[in-house]
Amino acid sequence: MPRSLPPCLLALALLSTSLRGQDVSISSEVDWDKMEKPTRVLRQQLFRGDVKADLTNKDHLEAIDFAAKEAVYRLYWHRAAALIKGTETPKEREERAKNRPTKILTDFEGALDSLNRAKDRGNVASMQAAYTKAVAGRARDVILQNDPISTVNAARILYLLAARPVEKGGFPQSAKAWGDAVLPRLAADTGDAYAGILAELAASPRVNDGAKYYLLRGLGDLLSLPRQAPPLWKKETEDKGVRAAVALLARKTDFTLSTPRDQLEGFKILRVQAVRVLAASGQSILDKEQPALWLARIAAGDALVSPYPRVEERIEAAAGLGRMVGQADKHPDLVADYAAHQVAIAVAVFAQEANANLDSKTVRRVRPWKADASRLLETIEAMKANKDAHVTTAAEKCRSILVDLADGKEVSAAAATLVDWVLNNAPPSKSLIKGDASATVILDRSGTPAPKDEKGADKGKGDK
Predict the structure, then answer these.
(1) Is residue 444 part of a domain?
(2) pLDDT range class, residue 451, cuts 50, 70, 90
């Protein structure tokens, strides 16, 4: 169930200084009440599967578009009165209170779920794809208004369209169950349209960072879906998303000791979504961009990465980079031994962090460590497909620690041994990308976890 915005994301949203765009085509619910009645019965029939959506039928398309407007525009309507007029009537205030974003988001999840549970899913298949495409377009309408709160919540709607639920213990929903729910929504040209909207908005300087968190999170989930034949989206569309993620990682920051903690941590959890996009895309090189180098720098805690990366970022980066190491035929320019060493550094840091918190009670446990260890273990197993000697050694040293952590066992001695190995056994190669001596990772933090502040948040040399 959707929750209120975390304070760190709210801080990012309110930092926006963009001007509002043009008003959405239906700017008040009064207009909506007059216009939606002719399609109400048909919309209900389409959602139940009583009537099969015909995408050549003008009435069906109009009904689907009204359903999308109802799902998304409510996020803006009840803020628009105060924003545009500078005041609101008691009735408008009452309506806004009844239509809080958490309720609207819950209603939207219910609409998606009702389509998944339709008795005849074949009858709602075309409806699912058309509805997804319409919702994505209408969410874009709201985001381009640049009202900070409406923008973030519309981005949450976009994220939910392909979100992968997290189940008990922090494990993601099975790929089959997730695919069964999401893939019908992306049929025909909807997948490319949806990916294009996520990429466009994630790259836009007009969109605040609170919204970009959900846009990049949605893109990361989308790119993590099992690849289909024919592809659900065009390569050039995916490339736009990758470039948007790289641009965020390359952004110059000016955090200081006086930067509010919510703002600092908000940027870190935004950055992890950009890392997930690069990891899910699996492209080591994209024209002049080098996504693999960003993954290596985040995984190892490069001195150029500021603020210092959270352990969550390093897990995501190591997972993406490790998969590339195991697919040498797809990444001929990636230097495997150098990449594997950065993965090993990430595992060493992860092991120390996890070991210190593994036995904590649930409310004090900062990560689902066992689930994280299992995921990294999958990465190491994939990495072993590469028979380079340094890769093999790194994989063996990481594997035993991750097996124990996945079983909930203490690994302090083994973690210290791995830290010693990564510090004293440099990879034979000197850079990550063949022919590019500048594609390196700079370690001046000794490959160890950052010290903790009094609240337990990661804090390293990058936090000036």
Answers:
(1) yes
(2) very low
